[in-house]
Specification:
Largest sheet: 2 strands, antiparallel
Number of helices: 15
Helix content: over 70%
Shape: flat
Radius of gyration: 36 Å
Strand content: under 5%
Length: 456
């Protein structure tokens, strides 16, 4: 059709020198015939990829390339191409809404989708084997290269050729957490959908759709995290959610748009209260003064216009923050739950002693706070840390695969444990004798730090 419009224009101006509206009407009819044929096909396309490709073709190749290069010859075609582009975009938005509900929100995960941490462990073993293979291949390549470099040096001394650089073979495997195939399916679908929509529709429409897509994706991730928690425990469930929320936050950063929208709604809560008052004051409906019940209903029962700002990036960050806090709280409790319980009880006794007679209320004389009891709490907490710390660190490495991220997440856990032991040490010094302190054996801050700093 582009070629026809160009040929018709060239043919017309070959015989005539002045433009006419009749030529434009002829070309519009020809282009409309193309539109009448293609539109029924467009509105029956269901695949997002096909619709996105059509948008790219119409927007980039047709309008930006052909029409801009020949604006006078393709006026009629430009009008029809814009109509087709609007139809494709409308169909794309409609199919996106259906895709969000069917393939993201209502996605039914297969057992393999929730096989965490087994999937990551399998990929880690594969990466380790590839790493070993790469090291062995690199060592063999280096030995061959050393022989070649010797011969090159000899040739250079003769002055026949210039120096050469030998590059050893490297094939560093990617981290399992960075492989797209290891992402949860709804995360992959969300990011693919956003990437296709970004260049196909207007930014305002994209912002509204991205808000919905990211919200639904977070819901699906929370649901998957809960399923993994039931199957493997809170550590795997929360780390799974942290991992994929970090992926979402990182992958949506390149989109140069605001992921915030303004929602306007009507608040009818005052109308309900005003209607109830109107029912109670039916005898005042026909009063001709300021106490008229009907007038009061009209004034006080007017719906209020409210505006809410929703930011999908902030939703991702807030969910990530809540999940990290949940992980920190669980790991801290798994390390020092008994110690925290003792500190809470002991703090009550210490506060009572400060308010009243310290001689009558003594911490060391309480049944739960004897030196032997406190020593048992310290030993239990130390054993819990020693037994559970390696598995926690291993899980964090497996899911996050980034030392900086692991350090940031583990730092508040470490601080909580250190603070608890410092509080215990202060309490023993103030409320127990030196002999009792030796029995309790409370570790110093350096000892606790050394225990927790084995890998960080």
């Amino acid at each position: 059709m582009v070629r026809i419009c160009q040929d018709e224009n060239q043919l017309f101006f070959h015989f005539f020198s002045k433009p006419t509206d009749k030529l434009d009407i002829l070309l519009e009819r020809l282009c409309n015939s193309l539109y009448d044929v293609l539109r029924p096909l467009i509105i029956h396309i269901n695949h997002l990829e096909t619709l996105a490709e059509l948008c790219t073709i119409l927007k980039t190749e047709m309008l930006e390339d052909h029409v801009q290069n020949n604006p006078h010859e393709l006026v009629a075609f430009e009008t029809v191409a814009k109509q087709m582009l609007e139809d494709v975009q409308e169909r794309l938005v409609y199919r996106t809404h259906i895709y969000i509900q069917s393939d993201i929100l209502n996605y039914k995960p297969a057992p393999g989708d929730l096989a965490y941490p087994e999937k990551l462990e399998m990929m880690a073993s594969i990466a380790e084997s590839l790493k070993k293979e790469s090291i062995s291949r690199q060592s063999s390549t280096t030995s061959v290269a050393s022989e070649q470099s010797t011969s090159i040096t000899e040739v250079k001394e003769n002055g026949d050729v210039q120096s050469s650089i030998v590059v050893p073979y490297t094939n560093a495997p990617m981290s399992p957490a960075d492989l797209h195939g290891m992402w949860y399916p709804t995360v992959r679908r969300t990011l693919v959908c956003l990437s296709k929509l970004y260049r196909c529709i207007e930014k305002t429409i994209f912002q509204g759709l991205s808000q919905e897509i990211l919200y639904v994706c977070i819901v699906s991730l929370v649901s998957a995290s809960q399923a993994i928690t039931k199957r493997k425990g809170p550590v795997d469930g929360t780390l799974f959610l942290v991992k994929h929320l970090l992926i979402l936050r990182e992958q949506i950063a390149p989109f140069h748009v605001e992921f915030a929208i303004r929602e306007t709604a009507l608040d009818f809560s005052k109308m309900r209260v005003a209607a109830r008052h109107l029912i109670y004051k039916t005898n005042k409906i026909f009063k001709l003064n300021s106490d008229n019940a009907l007038l009061e209903f009209l004034v006080e029962g007017t719906p209020q216009v409210t505006e809410n700002y929703r930011d999908s990036k902030r939703d991702v960050d807030n969910q990530l923050k809540r999940t990290c806090e949940e992980f920190i709280r669980f790991v801290t409790d798994s390390f020092i739950s008994e110690l925290n319980a003792f500190l809470q009880k002991a703090s009550v006794i210490v506060n009572l002693a400060k308010e009243g007679d310290a001689a009558k209320v003594s911490l060391r004389q309480q049944p739960f706070a004897g030196p032997d009891k406190v020593h048992g709490v310290v030993n239990t907490s130390f054993k819990q840390i020693k037994s559970k710390l390696p598995s926690i660190l291993k899980s964090m490495t497996l899911y996050l695969a980034n030392k900086d991220t692991e350090y940031i997440l583990f730092k508040p856990i470490k601080a909580n444990v250190q603070q608890a032991f410092v509080q215990l040490h202060t309490m023993t010094v103030e409320n127990y004798t030196e002999e009792d302190q030796q029995i309790i054996g409370c570790p110093t801050a350096e000892q606790v730090n050394l225990l927790l700093s084995a890998s960080y």
